[in-house]
């Protein structure tokens, strides 16, 4: 993925969420300093882009979460871009499908469904030969057509549908995302058709 594509995605995101510019300062610095490198490659240091899906249940009351085997955390499904992926959104869809078995996802809103960009540290992983680094996680918003989960056992210890209120209490980032979800649902007259 070209750095100009990433800049365009981030610019579009900041038009929608202008108050988040200072929170993403590290990402801007990295983009500027590594304009010739593939920022989606897991070998790019000190950090690289990952992608995940914030997926609502069909009744819009729960968020899809996984228990990540390596990180030992409950997080949204996601991962690294692969060469066959068309773009960041298709990567999010693939990762959700691989980790939970849920494949029919509707992007919300349909025109620009990037709901969050997170910059967070990842600890070193000796098994993969990876030093500690940063993930610039581009989080896309979807609604699923089913709550049936088929867990992928290689990378997850479990998967579940978490009530939106409980999701909001996990950490500050998820609280912010839950507010964005609430704003979206309210703008769309109390629900998604």
In short:
The chain is α+β, with helices and mostly antiparallel strands. Helices cover about 30% and strands about 30% of the residues.
Structure description:
With about 190 residues, the protein is of the alpha+beta class. It has one domain (about 5-160): Nucleoside Triphosphate Pyrophosphohydrolase. It contains five helices and eight strands, in the order H-H-E-E-E-E-H-E-E-E-E-H-H. The chain has helices at about 5-15, 25-35, 90-100, 165-170, 170-185, and strands at about 45-55, 60-70, 75, 80, 105, 115-120, 135-145, 155-165. The strands form two sheets. Strands 1, 4, 5, 6 and 7 form a five-stranded mixed β-sheet that branches. It is globular, with a radius of gyration of 16 Å. It starts with a helix and ends in a 6-residue tail after the last helix.
Q: How would you classify the helix and strand content by structural class? A: alpha+beta
Helix count, DSSP H or I runs of 4 or more residues: 5
Q: Any idea what the CATH superfamily is called?
A: Nucleoside Triphosphate Pyrophosphohydrolase
- Which architecture name does CATH use? Alpha-Beta Complex
Low-confidence stretches: none
Strand content bin = 25-35%
Task: Report how far the terminal alpha carbons are from each other.
Answer: 33 Å
CATH class: Alpha Beta
How would you characterize the largest beta sheet?
A: 5 strands, mixed
- Report the helical percentage: 25-40%
Number of domains: 1
Query: Radius of gyration in whole Å, from Cα?
Result: 16 Å
Roughly what is the average pLDDT, rounded to an integer?
87
Tell the overall outline: globular
CATH topology: Nucleoside Triphosphate Pyrophosphohydrolase
Order of helices and strands: HHEEEEHEEEEHH
What is the number of strand segments?
A: 8
């Amino acid at each position: 993925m070209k750095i100009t594509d990433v800049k365009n995605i981030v610019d579009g995101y900041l038009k929608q969420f202008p108050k988040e510019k200072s929170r993403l300062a590290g990402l801007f610095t990295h983009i500027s300093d590594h304009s010739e490198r593939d920022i989606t490659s897991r070998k790019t240091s000190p950090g690289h882009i990952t992608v995940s899906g914030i997926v609502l249940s069909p009744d819009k009351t729960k968020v899809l979460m996984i228990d990540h085997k390596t990180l030992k955390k409950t997080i949204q499904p996601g991962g690294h871009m692969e060469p066959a992926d068309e773009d960041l959104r298709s990567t999010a869809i693939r990762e959700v499908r691989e980790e939970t078995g849920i494949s029919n996802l509707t992007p919300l809103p349909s025109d620009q469904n990037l709901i969050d960009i997170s910059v967070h540290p990842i600890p070193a992983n000796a098994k993969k030969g990876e030093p500690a680094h940063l993930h610039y996680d581009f989080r896309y918003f979807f609604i699923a057509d089913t709550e049936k989960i088929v867990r992928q056992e290689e990378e997850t210890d479990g998967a579940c549908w978490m009530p939106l209120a409980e999701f909001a209490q996990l950490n500050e980032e998820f609280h912010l995302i839950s507010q964005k979800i609430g704003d979206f649902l309210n703008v769309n007259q109390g629900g998604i058709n």
